[in-house]
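#struct-help
A.M.: can someone run this one for me? Single chain, 189 residues.
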Amino acid sequence: MSTNPESGAAPPDDVHLIVAKDEEVVIEYHPEDWIAFVLFWALAFIVFLQFFTRYVLNDSLSWTEEIARYGLMSLAFIGGAVVTRKKAHIAVELLSNLMKPSPLRSALLALADFVTLGFMGMLAFFSVTIVERMHSQRMTVFELPMSIVYGIVGLGCFMMLVRQIQVVWRNARDGWRRAPEVTDQIHAD
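D.P.: on it. Structure tokens below:
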């Protein structure tokens, strides 16, 4: 151990050159997280059941393929609400990332938010129409209306719309300012 040149004594053992502190991690669960969690594991179970009955028992259950298809549709739209809340939808952000913070960049980000909001609004509107039209159709295996399946899809669309409204509100309150560096834009959620 080296000595301190000024005092001639060794530094105490509790002195460190690098100090790392763990940040407080807060994990929040929202309704769409729980719905997606349940749908995912139900879908995993149904697909495993389909695989097991088809390849191990050599006698496939007839309902597993149809329900797995509907479960995947539902999971995609409920998962869309999760992704909307986290602002993690696939986007081409090259232009806004190349621009320096300015009113023009803020206007571009605002335009992107409002176009997304309009699209989510159209999805929610048309999902109601589809649910109404599909009420007379029946599932192939079960005698249930297809409006149940499309109702879950509609629920996902409305959840995406609500989450996008919240995103637009937050971004508008912040003036559509985003961190100038791309690495600073990554959120720990």
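A.M.: thanks! The mean pLDDT is 86.
D.P.: also worth noting: Helices lie at 31-56, 63-85, 94-98, 103-133, 147-173.
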